């Protein structure tokens, strides 16, 4: 069995000013770096030793992983990038303000197509609506998006099993993590608003993912306390 610590990257410049990041990228802010230092120290305090590390190929996840490994005494372990666990691609809306897309364009598309029923739209509806209005032709259909997310995480888990890993850390993105949890556990509510530096716990055994605590902030809280003691 593989224990998976799935982390949302640290807070970035675009996160701070409310822009849709997607496949575009900005670095962690000073506050974002501090939050991930706390996370690494929390892992260290719990004595968690990782056998392998994985992240998307986005700069913000790579930067986050560096802070995690150096502050948790896990430097030097095998580490790979995988573009399949990138954030959703927002196409021509990448880098635009969140409100412009999520409070403006998408609700209008849903209303025009009779898709508003009082509940939060499903990922499939959101992805296909973004695909429909993307003028650049970069956005993904839900079939493409869900396929690469599930394939990416599944291949990472299988590779870790083959390597005999017991504990792995993965750094990915808020919407991608939420989609992945819903894909492997469709009966659960879809996680929204995962905090930067939060940890979602999973295990993988016999080809199946089990989802534990989602969006756990206890490691960051523990690391914050250790910093105050210095």
Layout of strands and helices, then pairs:
Elements: E1 2-8, H1 13-17, H2 30-45, E2 52-55, H3 59-71, E3 79-81, H4 98-112, H5 123-133, H6 142-162, E4 167-172, H7 174-184, E5 199-205, E6 208-211, H8 218-229
Helix pairs in contact: 2-3, 2-8, 4-5, 6-7
Number of helices: 8
CATH level-four homologous superfamily name: Phosphoglycerate mutase-like
Major sheet: arrangement of strands = 3-2-4-1-5-6
Please tally the β strands and state the result: 6
- The CATH architecture designation is 3-Layer(aba) Sandwich
Q: What helical percentage do the residues reach?
A: 40-55%
Low-confidence stretches: none
Q: Helices and strands, in N-to-C order? A: EHHEHEHHHEHEEH
Number of self-contained structural domains: 1
Protein described:
- This protein is α/β, with parallel strands linked by helices.
- The chain has a single domain, classed as Phosphoglycerate mutase-like (Rossmann fold, 3-Layer(aba) Sandwich), CATH 3.40.50.1240.
- The protein is about 45% helix and about 15% strand.
- β2, α3 and β3 form a beta-alpha-beta unit.
- The radius of gyration is 18 Å and the shape is globular.
